[in-house]
Amino acid sequence: MRTKLVVAVTALGLLLMAVPAWAHHAFAAEFDQNKPIKVQGSVVKWELTNPHSWIHIDVKGADGKTVTWMIEGASPNNLYRLGLTKESLPPGSVISVEGYQAKDGSTRAVGRNIVFANGKKFFLGLSEAESGPAKP
Amino acid sequence: MQKQFRNVVVASMAAAIVLLAAMLGGAQAPAYRAPRTGDGKPNLNGIWQALNEANWDLQGHAAGHGPVAALGAAFSLPPSLGVVEGDEIPYLPAAAAKKKENQANWTKLDPEVKCYLPGVPRAAYLPYPFQIVQGPQNIMMAYQYAGGVRIINMGPATKAPGDSWMGWSNGRWEGETLVVDVTSLNDQTWFDRAGNFHSDALHVVERYTPRSADTLMYEATIEDPKVFSRPWKISMPLYRRVEKNARILEYKCVEFAEELLYGPLSKKP
Amino acid sequence: MSHRLPALAVGLAVMIVVALLAQLPATAQTPASAAKAPAAAKAWMVPRAPDGKPDLQGIWSDNTLTPLERPKGLGAKEFYTDQELAENSKKAREGNVGEEGELGAARPNAVRYDLELYGFDPSKLRYTSKRTSLIVGPEGVVPPMLPGARERNAEITAKNKGHEFDSYLNRPLSERCILMGQEQIPMRPGANEGNLLQIVQGQGYVSLLHEIDHSTRVIPTDGRAHVPQNIRLWQGDSVGHWEGDTLVVDTTNFTNRTPFRGSSEKLHLIERFTRTADNTMVYQFTVEDPTTWAKPWTAEIAWTKTKGPVYEWACHEGNTMITTILRGARVADAEAAKKGK
Fold it and tell me: DSSP 3-state assignment of C135?
């Protein structure tokens, strides 16, 4: 019951998130919508920092080489209000990520959707929306 | 009435014993009793500031060179008797090496240089004021430097879901003393400019005890089994800023660290 | 030893007095403004903080569907009827809302993720007042910007044009974690974590902690003068006083780089905080800047008490936005240079 309340309050908050003027601009400047990525890997580290959290995952490429991707997620404050804690994503967890790669060409991406290996959705999401009028 | 009289007799006998013990055994009972807030608690409201060299180096040291030749003596290391009880910081061997490395690379590694939040206990003895705003359920400590702030929960203790720069503070009163138990600090802050550091296992217990109308005694017991072989303690007075319109002012220092942090990413002319 | 005996006697006397006083029941707090209270016995009275002032403490959210400016076509209509409000709420919850609601990130064309994965429940969307806009009065919109202000702002934009990614100096203050949109005063509804506000009151001060960027204002309530004119601050200088049960906060001394809707360092902000029920605070702000708007304008938002806690939202320490953006720009520069542009 308490979890439901937390989720509802958060949802209301997220829903009413006005797009700050910088958010739209910042997103387009940071990530490339023409470079979608879809990777699966095991969690190495979960940084619960602001303005965004970051999941580091080790992804094995077709060539057998392992590349570490950094996936950007929501502010951890959102996640805490969803009932998550720093123990919620243990290293070694296998997750699938859909997102958009960073414009600087690094192995960073914003995480649009995150799914556990067993198919269970674990969504951390974007803290910036794609479009919507920039508010002065 | 009988019960009340008995209580008074018991109370005054207890008081007499305490006084006698104090006279004979070296006083442990606080000599100063602070004025009370409306909810009956010692009144710690006000703007406070440490007046020592702890932010340079918690341990005693002679004067020394500063890091920047161009600033000469104006930014040199002032001498200090130190604030560590016993003057020893009991590092585990591997950690002692890291401390030396930190100290040698201070300007590159000290989070203070980057305008990062100072953590606990360093926030209390930065050379800038902080303000205690004391409510019944929550006590706020607002630090001038970098707009650092923390809320001390005075209700039943709660747990943090994750780590933070200023930690998670649960407080309670022990007589005249505000005791604050601080956990869930991240491992990114330092204790001073001398490279004294800690891990994310840091646990700090602070004690704020009114000493006079315009001073508090501040003590902090520091425990971190990943870095130190035992708990250790610092203590120092905090002084009230008694100027008539004393304020903590906005000190958003990000601007002053940007060239250092982002300069290399600027467009080359 | 003889000089200690009087001390002992005094000590004992003090102890006895203290012990006796401790037997007394706690004195009931009588509201200072009892004279102003309505005659009805059941009228809500604002609780008192330990220093006798109205107690504004708690964690507050300013979330609301109400837009800042009045939808076009509503003219001077300042309030919806109950039925209209119910209809608008229903539309919003069905994901179908126009100017009459502010959905922010929930705008259909803005959503890049399935909100339901967040546990989003559209049935929880609501208006916190019947106002058609947060801006009060017959017009309900921000007054037109004065020509001088338009020019001033156009100049600023022109100067940055073509240089937006040159260095950190060219980037928005929010991207630099200097001043986030949601921490800037006056306080307007916005991002979920950004609009959590914790109020703590101590003797002579009311402090406001905005979760985003841990933005804190410790406001003296003795009506003192502002800091000297030459001291300019990103969030200005706030001083307060009580008018009955309302906290009135006056803010001046803004910098000329504080970009509230294109205003200048002459910005003058007056905020009023009135707790109207256990779980409701009415926050009203009036802004004036004679070099930006022809007249002052006022907005009013109803806040709701919410469950905390407020968590630390440290921005600068983890700021990967600006480094990724500047690096991305340098990569683009290098690519453009390679193409011989």
Answer: strand
